[in-house]
Amino acid sequence: MRSESDVATSWGERRAPRLGELLHRLVSEIGELIDQRITLLRLELKEQVSTAVRDLVLVLLGAVLATLGMLRAPRHARRRPSAGASEPAGETLEEERGSSSTVDAETSRRDEKNTQR
Fold first, then answer.
1. Closest of 28, 27, 46, 50 to residue 38, by C-alpha
2. Which burial class, exposed, middle or buried, applies to 8 when counting CB atoms under 10 A from its CB (0-12, 13-18, 19+)?
């Protein structure tokens, strides 16, 4: 495809492009470059936002599952805070006392004492 700057003269010679033609081409190409950069920026931004949203959903899902796990855990299986250095850390009430029925009986007795006070 021939541009205006490549037009042959009547003697068969090619003329050099004029300054106005060069500036017009330069401005046109700079405009195309800016459009391409904006399109690329939009695509990259859209990808980063979708990745951030996906990661946030996964974190929230993990938090919900952890909360549900804590709420559904039987009371006797939860770890009690250690009262002293002599008690093994992380021992559950069931392991310490033997069975869940013993734990329930002792809890009932403790509750009765608290209500009598």
1. 46
2. exposed
